[in-house]
Each structure stands twice: as C-alpha cells, then as structure tokens.
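Thread: NAP complex, take 2
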Amino acid sequence: MPVRCQQSPVLAGSATMATLGALMLYLTKPFSYGKHMEIPAPGVPPLPARTAWFLQELPAFVVSAGILAWQPRSLFGPPGTLLLGLFCAHYFHRTFIYALLTRGRPFPVVFLFRGSIFCVGNGFLQAYYLIYCAEYPEEWYADIRFSLGIFLFILGMGINIHSDYILRQLRKPGEITYRIPQGGLFTYVSGANYLGEIIEWIGYALATWSPPGLAFAFFSLCYLGQRASHHHRFYLKMFEDYPKSRKALIPFIF
Ligand SMILES: NC(=O)c1ccc[n+]([C@@H]2O[C@H](COP(=O)([O-])OP(=O)(O)OC[C@H]3O[C@@H](n4cnc5c(N)ncnc54)[C@H](OP(=O)(O)O)[C@@H]3O)[C@@H](O)[C@H]2O)c1
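Output below.
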C-alpha cells in the first residue's frame, strides 16, 4: 500500500524542533562536551570521540538513506529525491569521514544518547517530508530558491569541512590541548565551522522550501550560535593574545 503524507505529525515534529532550538537560547551554561566538559566527567565514563561521533551521527544517515533507497524514483528525478540525497551526503560525511578523523577529547555518553535520538527524529522527519509530502512544481529546478539554496548548501558545507580541518590540524594525534585557530573564516569568527554549518542548513531550508528544513535551519542557528558564543568567551578567557577583532559567529557583527 502506498505511504500517504500525514501533514499533522510533520508540522508537530517541525514545531518541536524549532521550539527546542529557541529553548537553547535560554541556557546559560554550555553543553558539557569538548571545551566545556566538566573534568572529571560525572556518571558513565566518556567514549572515545571517534566511536561517539560515529554512533551519534549514523542514525541520521541510515534513516534518510534507507528511505531514499526504498522509494522507486531515481536520485536525479523529482527535486525531493535530489534534496534528500544532499541531506544523506552531509550525514555520510559526518558519519564516515568527520567522525573517523576527529581528534576530539572523549565524549560524554549522555550527549551521544541525546544526539542519536535527535538524529533519528530529524533524519526521519526530513526524509519522510521530502519523499511523501513535498510537491514541487515542474520548474522548481529553475526556481531561484532552489538555485540559491543549493549554492548556499554547498558553500556552507565547504566552509564547515575546511574549518573542521583547520581545527583538526591544531592537534597532533593523542593531544587534547587547545590552540588559537588561524586561517580561513577563523580570521573573522571563533565559530567558523558553525557558521558554515548554519549557512548549509539555511541553503537546505531555501531549496526544500519546507517546514522541516526551516525548523532544522532555525535549530542549528540557535544551538550552534549559542555554542559559538560560549567558545568565543572560552578563547577570550584562555588566550590573552586572542585576536581582538574576531567575533563569535558573524564577521564584524556578532
Ligand atoms: N547542525 C547541528 O545542529 C550541529 C550540532 C552539533 C555539531 N554540529 C557539527 O558537528 C561538528 C563538531 O561539533 P563540535 O561542537 O564538536 O565542534 P567544536 O567544539 O568546534 O570542535 C570540533 C573539533 O575540533 C576540536 N577543537 C575545537 N577547538 C579547538 C582548538 N581551539 N584547538 C584544538 N582543537 C580544537 C574539538 O576538540 P574537543 O572535542 O576536544 O573540544 C573537536 O574535535 C561541527 O562541524 C558542527 O558544525 C552540528
């Protein structure tokens, strides 16, 4: 029997994600992983960063790629399948490349657990909407929202990957020290990797023109914007010679 779109759960899921994002702005303390991890970490011992990031991100890839593979149309057929392909590409990179290269310090299990649940929910929401609900006009591929959105998605992903590469190069394998990131968009902001990721999901929201896409972009903006601001304060406190003109997330502004 063909799956029929249920609009109400899609809207409820999108509204929940947007609300979660807005609530992040009220948190005064940063989430306790990476730079902001309490040492010693309370509760269950943290997992090696590579294992943790792999397990955390894998569900988003499996769920979205599973739904993409299950549907009968070709990847370059309707816009919905192509857009879901881009979502899968992001999570393929995050799961099988970023996670396996990271030199991060051990990662608390509680955040891995929460992150995995988010990844299952978000992966399902985005994939379900694009395959079973989205209806794009025939000329969507020529629409400015699609073209600009794809451009921003690729640009943001490029900035994110390049910035994460710069951060990785700050450490030798086995080190967990922090240094001042230099180069790329780090010249202007402390959260260059986050800025890239936010641009990426704004592009996705534009190209998909969808409630789940918009909700995820908003969530990323709130969550990563907040975290960039905490990183910035961490750097200012830790390094006396931290570049004074560098902002937290938006060059010259914030
Ligand atoms: N879309 C979303 O909502 C979302 C949510 C979370 C994360 N993400 C993405 O996931 C990726 C990782 O996120 P994150 O929060 O872990 O990023 P992060 O805090 O910037 O850390 C990224 C990596 O670089 C290391 N690092 C950071 N600053 C460093 C410094 N000054 N010197 C040496 N090493 C440094 C970190 O090590 P430590 O772990 O030891 O600090 C970690 O391995 C990012 O690309 C982010 O955009 C996306």
